[in-house]
# Entry
Amino acid sequence: MLGSYPVRSLSLEEGDVWPLGVGGVGLALLAAHDEAFVARYIENYLPVITRYSQTTAQSLHERIRRARADGFASSERDVLPGVSALGVAIVHPLTGRPFGAISIAAISSRMEAERSREIVALLQREARLITDTLAGQSARTEG
# Structure
C-alpha cells in the first residue's frame, strides 16, 4: 500500500526477490533463524548479498544480533540510498520457524525514532495476529 506523503519510496515491486539479510524483510527473516543456519547462510551467500547491499559478514552478524535483541530488523540505506525499512518476522505457531515477514519502507528522513517505534509496534502486532490466526487454524484442524 502506498502512503499519502508526496514523496514515495518505491524500492520494491510486488514479486521482487531479494536474498535473506537484505532490506527489512530479508534481515528480519535471517535474524529469526537459528545461529547455525545464519552462519552457513552468510558463509555461502555473502557474494550474493553484497550484490544488493554494501555489507560484510561481520556487519551482517552485528545487524542480526541487534535485530534479535530489539525484536525487529532495521535496514537503513541498505537497498537504496535515502530509504530505510523496518521489518518483523512471522513465525509458524507449531514449528517456531520463520516463514514470512512484514515491513514498512520510507524515505529515511521520515523514519525518526518516535515514528519508528510506532511502526514497529504495528508490525509486531500484525505479525502476532497472523501467528495467532494460524495457531487457531492448526488447533481446529487437529481437534
